[in-house]
Design brief:
With 251 residues, the chain is an alpha+beta fold. Helices cover 27% and strands 25% of the residues. Strand 4 (68-71) and strand 5 (80-87) form a beta hairpin.
Length: 251
Amino acid sequence: MFAAAGSNYVENNVATYGLIEAIKIFEEVYPHREGTISWVHATDETIFRDDGMDFDINDYIIGEVDIKIHFNTGDLAGFEFVLTSYDDGNQEFNLIKNSNVQDHELPSDTLKPAIGDKYVILDILMPESYITAAETELQTKATTFINNNSDPRVNYLLTPDPKYFKDNAISLKVGDKVTVVDSDLGINKLVRIIRLTQSLYNLYKYMLEFSDQLEPQLIQVIISNQDEAERRIIISDVGDIYKARRNWRST
């Protein structure tokens, strides 16, 4: 499946970095419909209905290929069953029982479809509207991906001006975001502090390390580690004060 309008590629920043080709597969994007069961037969666990079904499955059969129903939720989640018939008038599905599930036959009296269960239909052609929707989703995901990956992922090491920081009462911590501007390097972007060194003698003197690409989970770990390090420094400093007092009194 291609992106919308028949295009099979997207590009960005080619004029800046040249053409670098890569392939990205979005396996979760394909023409499909996740249905919801709205009614189940009282005595036959192989029959259910979906009142939201918006096309006739019988019009989209692929030759002699068996149509299958795959359950996403409910007691039958993860199981697939061959569809023996579909009545478009009642939007009614009729399944063939599967007797090859660990010597059990499903659906059964205890494990069966229920109202609200989610399912998808496999091994059929899909209506054009679903193909168009999938192409649009693919285009959106591809564009988002290339926008997030078309600039080099780099780290920056900077030493800010202590006087400027002091005059403007600037205090930083790991996780803060700042805008880095360097016309010579063509940099003007919002980046996050991933590591910093702060002078004990001049609290406005920093050595900063930035990254423009960082996963949220890693950010939390870095901030947590930084907070723990600061706590240890404070405890250590208190210990040093007590030690200094004891040494002074013993002399």
